[in-house]
Each structure stands twice: as C-alpha cells, then as structure tokens.
Here is the input.
Amino acid sequence: MKVLVLGVDGYLGFPLAIRLCDLGHDVIGVDNLLRRSLVYQIGGRSVTPIYTPKERASAVNNYFSGSYKFIRGDITNYEFLKNLIKEEDPDAIVNLAQIPSAPFSMKDPESCWLTIENNVKGNLNLLWVLKEHDRVIPVVQIATLGEYQITRWEIPDGFIEVEHNGVREKIAFPKDPLSYYHCSKVHMTINTMLACKIWDLKFTEIYQGVVYGVSLYEYIDEKLFTRFDIDHCFGTIINRFTAQAVIGHPLTVYGKGGQKRGFLSIKDSIHAITLAIKKPPKENYRAINQFVETYRVRELAQLVAKVAEEEGYKVEIQHILNPRIERENDHYYEPRDDTLRSLGFKPQTTIEKEIRETIHIVAEYKDRIKKELIMPTIRWK
Here is the structure.
C-alpha cells in the first residue's frame, strides 16, 4: 500500500511513517516544516534531538522494508496538493497537517489567524482535490475530543440520537470549542462532513484525546526520534509534567485541576491510526473517538509524581492560576470508544509504563530543556 502522510514532520506524523514502513508499506511524507519554525519562534526546541528530513528519510530506508520519501511542500497551496496527489495517486491519505496548539491560537491575532488559515485551508484544499480526483482515496484525518460540548451525556462517536417534539433524529454531537485551535477543528469537521455527503468522499475522522510519550523507534537509531515539546505552547500536559519532574520544577496544575480529558500514549495513537488506515469505512464519513483512559489534571500530576518518585526524583505539585477559560471543578465527562474497539484496537502499553519510559528519555536529554518556557505566558483574557 502507498500512503500519503500530510504533516509527516510532526509529533505523530514521523512515527506513523516509520510504523507504516515497518509494516512494509510505502510512504510519501509531506511537510512544510512549520512546526519546527513555530517552536523556534517562541524560543523552544524539541527535548529529543531532531534531525533533518533528509537524514530521517535515510534512516527509515536503512532499517525498514517499506520505502519512505520526504517532499517539502505546503498543502495550503492548492496547485501543489493537486499535482502531488495526481502524480503519487496514493492508496490512502492521512491528514495531520495542522497547527496543534490551543495556546498558540490564543497568543495574538496573527497566531490565531495563522492557525485558522493553515488548518482550515489545508483541509478545504484536500477536499476539493479529492473531489476532482479520478478515484476515491480513503482519508484518515485527525480531529480532537476538544470539539465536543461537555455535558452530562456520554459522548458517542461523532453523532447522537435526540428526541424533540416526539421526533427522534441522529445529529452531530454538540460542539463547544474552548480555543481558536479547537474552532479550526470544528470548521474542518463540518467542511469534511459536507464534502463526504455531497461528493461521495471517504473519510475517517479521529476525535483524538491528548497524546503523551515519546518512546517508539529511537532504540534503533537516534535519527528515528519523534519530536518532544515541553513548552507551554506545544507541550502536552503529561509530557510537560515528566520534564518538570526530571529538572526539579513543580508540576504546574492549572487552577483546581478538576478538568477531565481523554488520554492515550503515542504508541496507542499510532496503533489506532494504523488500524483506521487498514480498515477504511464502508460509509462516507466515519467518526472515531480515540482515547484509552480519562483523567483529571490533578490525578495526572499525582500519577507522574508517584512514578517519578519511584525513579528517585523529589516532586512537588503546585496549583497555579489557570491561563485558560475552562471548567476547573469536577465535572461529568464520559466519551465512548465503541468504533475504535470494533476495529480490534487494544492498548499497547499502560500509562505508568509510558511515563516511566518518558522520564528515562527526558533525563538523558534534560540539558536541552529550556526552563524559561515551562510556565504559561499566554492567557485567554
């Protein structure tokens, strides 16, 4: 199978490309390297060393049976994307080419607009190109659980049956984005559902939880590391906590810490995306809630502290003023993952094991951590 991975240079894109090559597939990876540029602009860098795309491609082709080709390009350029898909004619496409940061989207007007333009325009270009392509290519696209409204209902995969005035209908689950990044994802979802309905496209949209961890293929060669950001803009919560524990910084819990979200390891994320590629949908639009467990923020801090202390670190937990506008008190939050399980998904690891592995790797590269970027400086108001 030939798979086109858009956004291949990101946190999930590169390890996904490696996994596909490890399974014997051929991968064309496309990226404009914007993530590298944005992290650099805020003064950050990946804790893990990140090699050039050329060096990474050489390493992948050296160790795995499938072939890997990197192409530098921007999918917000319609002509580039149209020519790319026409020339490569892939069997499947994975769209990961988005700016994945809520804080960055709330930084200032320029960052907000860049997030909206990059994410929505890239998605729309892909939809229009596929409309004109001479055959249907199944696409897997990353959405986010953060699109959904937090209610006292369980959150099913994408859609819910409701009754009004005695009439039952199936509708999209209510949306309630909490940042302009999440707004961009809602735009993408609505645009994709419309295109699938009117143009007969095939999309699997993955409403993904927060991903954590780093350990995948680096034991073979350092050039196979994925990036690992721990700054307040691009670092996800467990990754930030593990870095804080290693350098002796208090684990910074935003507000009361009652915020509850879905989480999964990077191993499980890649495994689930691979399953979605392997098993394309029969319907035009398939929604998958992708997570393994749900935790409150303070529970995660306690868990990271426990594991870190077992590894010999002295850890303090500190509640700080929440820079975001969100529910901090305990609230009902129960997403379902029926579709993911129906594909045969089973977790590949445990959260404690992944935190432990991450702590070991971060400790090896802790001199690359920029402590001045840990505390949040971007506020919602």
